[in-house]
Amino acid sequence: MKNDNVTTGKPRALARYAGLLGAAALLGAGYMVVRRKTEQVEREHPPAGQFISVDGVRLHYLSEGEGPVVVLLHGNGVIGEDYRNSGLLALLAGDHRVIVFDRPGFGYSERPRSTVWTPAAQAQLLASALRQLGVERAVVLAHSWATLVALAMARQAPELVAGLVLASGYYYPSVRMDVLTSTPAIPVIGDLMRYTLSPLLGRLMWPLTVKRAFAPAPVPESFRRMPPWMALRPGQLRAEAAETAMMIPSAAVLRAHYPELAMPLAIVAGEADGIADPWRNSVRLNREVADSELTLVPNGGHMIQHLAPELLARAVRGVEGTIRHKQEQVPAAWTADGAALRQSGAEPRH
């Protein structure tokens, strides 16, 4: 009986060893492919803008044009260059100074692991970056996940944020199945996966993921200018997964403060958005914020910056018009921030 156990035990042990070796070989092969693809995409698509160091964090940003400042914040899964690809940057840069950040961990911006990059933490970092760049007042346009960052910035630095344009945002906590895809953010296991299998699986799923983001509209050529591997690099996968995991608690923290918003707010969403339900989010936010205007794009999906860039540019100018109108209503001796400037002939800041 003892000999039989020894005899049957050896094949089982060999099978286990063979399985482990096979798994190791698979992970090793995956690592080599991911490394090669990451190096290739970064070589073919190097940083297109400039860098600034803020509180020890190196941020990559684009800056074009002159005039009143507009800040563009991209959503999860893309990079700042997405606004150039969509055409929105060009539409605004003719008469504005447009600043487009790669948010922490995206594009070519760093995302130190010593910080939990909540919307509040990102808002503080980006507000400091704007001050370093000499910005005193700006209209902030944000898409998708970044709308939470813009709202946090408006709460933390209302003297800096003159107005908001929020596109395709998620503002109220709700059950979301995509939270289950946040594995690459888990320490150790996530690190192993994002350098090996997660990018490969992401590449296989890329066509369906992109199609869902634009549905019911077709995917436009403007979006195809961003190579998928820019979004599938291991570092960016960690940022994307972490933000997916933080989405519900982040909205839960901010929701109580929406009625406190005092600056003009334009809310834009696709009527058929399957990523952030416009009725549960954009319509509800419009009801809660007194000085807000809502535009729903018929048959529009989530990626509204590609589907309707002209509409977003008009929303920016509409917010600027509201700001000017409010300034004209301020008593002669005071500006909106309480500084006694107009009697001396000085102009309010923009």
Explain the overall architecture.
The chain is α/β, with parallel strands linked by helices and 350 residues long. The chain has one domain (44-328): Rossmann fold, CATH 3.40.50.1820. It is built from 12 helices and 8 strands. The chain has helices spanning 2-44, 82-86, 88-93, 119-132, 146-156, 189-194, 197-214, 228-231, 234-254, 282-288, 304-307, 309-329; strands at 50-54, 57-64, 69-73, 97-101, 138-143, 161-167, 265-270, 292-297. Strands 1-2-4-3-5-6-7-8 form an 8-stranded mixed beta sheet, with helices on both faces. The N and C termini lie far apart (89 Å).
Keywords:
46% helix; 8 strands; 12 helices; disordered C terminus; 8-stranded mixed β-sheet; alpha/beta; 350 residues; Rossmann fold
